[in-house]
């Protein structure tokens, strides 16, 4: 049975009284999951909704706690890293990582960054050894696949587009994915939301089709 960890990062829901306020990225994730379930009805899905329930930001005490050996941690330090432990366990358990997120201010939402900061952790998702020279960090997990489903108000962030280089959402996650154990990444992106025109409608439709195609490609 495939195990999917779904991380939703939008602060918008999909059941607003005004449809235009609904989250596009969450709807894309729904399309992916619905398509997957056609091939594997009993797929195991763990939902981590960081948009509606943001993880705590890391702090000075958090850093001190994770750099203290487990056997020497105080109860307070154990409590501080408890959420991080839970999030890492969810990640470790998953085969497929499904991240749905809007682009906020040309990057990832703060809540999604907080999730990454809780997870990218020494001796949990990476090791550090200066004997490796200029590249001392090495991921621990492997064998996972990341599916990134995004929405953006503007357009043209891909290579060759008019805003190439100004969108940092996908690029940032592409850099971080190795610390999630994700060896490959698939993407679908809906754009033009702020323009609310036919280009937006076409982009959303294409993104839903792409999300379903990815699910068909990856599902057993």
Key terms:
19% strand; 220 residues; two-stranded antiparallel ribbon; Rossmann fold; five-stranded parallel β-sheet; alpha/beta
Question: Could you walk me through the main structural features you see in this protein, from its secondary elements to its overall organization?
Answer:
Helix content is 37%, strand content 19%. It has helices at 24-39, 60-66, 75-93, 110-119, 169-176, 198-218, and strands spanning 3-8, 44-49, 96-102, 126-128, 137-139, 144-151, 182-190. The protein is α/β, with parallel strands linked by helices and 220 residues long. The chain has a single domain (3-218), classed as Flavodoxin domain (Rossmann fold, 3-Layer(aba) Sandwich), CATH 3.40.50.360.
Can you describe this structure in just a few lines?
With 220 residues, the chain is α/β, with parallel strands linked by helices. The chain is 37% helix and 19% strand.
Largest sheet: 5 strands, parallel
Q: What is the total domain count?
A: 1
What's the number of helices? 6
Quickly give the structural class.
alpha/beta
**Average pLDDT value?**
97
Low-confidence stretches: none
Predict the CATH topology: Rossmann fold
Major beta sheet, strand line-up: 2-1-3-6-7
């Amino acid at each position: 049975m495939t195990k999917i960890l779904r991380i939703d990062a939008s602060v918008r829901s999909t059941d607003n009284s005004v449809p235009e306020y609904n989250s596009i990225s969450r709807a894309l994730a729904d399309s992916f999951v619905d398509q997957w379930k056609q091939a594997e009805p009993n797929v195991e899905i763990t939902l981590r909704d960081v948009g509606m329930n943001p993880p705590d930001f890391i702090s000075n005490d958090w850093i001190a706690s994770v750099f203290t050996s487990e056997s020497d941690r105080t109860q307070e330090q154990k409590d501080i890293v408890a959420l991080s432990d839970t999030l890492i366990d969810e990640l470790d358990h998953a085969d497929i990582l499904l991240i749905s997120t809007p682009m906020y201010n040309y990057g990832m939402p703060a809540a999604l960054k907080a999730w990454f900061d809780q997870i990218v952790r020494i001796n949990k998702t990476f090791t550090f050894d200066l004997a490796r020279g200029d590249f001392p960090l090495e991921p621990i997990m492997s064998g996972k696949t990341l599916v990134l489903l995004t929405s953006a108000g503007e357009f043209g962030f891909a290579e060759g587009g008019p805003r190439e280089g100004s969108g940092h959402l996908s690029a940032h996650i592409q850099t971080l994915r190795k610390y999630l154990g994700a060896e490959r990444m698939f993407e679908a992106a809906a754009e033009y939301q702020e323009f609310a025109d036919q280009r937006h409608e076409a982009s959303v439709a294409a993104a839903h089709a792409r999300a379903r195609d990815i699910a068909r490609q990856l599902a057993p």
